[in-house]
Task: structure prediction
Amino acid sequence: MAADNSASRPNTPGRPNDVRQTRLDETDHVLLAQLTRDARTPNNALAQMAGIAPSTCLARVRSLVERGVIRGFHADVDPAALGRDLEAMISVRLRADARPHMAQFADRMSVVPEVLDVYFIAGADDYLLHVAMRDTAALRDFVLDHLSARPEVAATETILVFEHIRPRPGT
Result:
């Protein structure tokens, strides 16, 4: 399931499905903890862990998705398996006069295949991009073609990732 990213973009009026207003009970927390550990947990097993009927479990998970608490289910694919062995974090600072168009920058970056994640951040920079490339030449070309050539981009800084260790909740 793909998540709608509009709620997290800057300059987006309001936050649809504002999760800060969502009340979660103990059953929701059990469901979320297990799905965080293993999103492929079958509904019957998930229901048993939460102590509810499978039909109730299915309805509760659907509700968590609809309310934006669960942003999506996805496969965590190692970029190296796709021939993209080089990962980097690129901080991007936009020009001050480009601030009204920040969401457009995020939208543009989020559809570039090499971009794994787009973070809107606080501090001196505006965005942090997590990218995966086949080699340094591809990384250089990405920075030149997608960032430095853009008039709204004031500065970038590229940091190579030697290893990406993803925390494993509950293990």
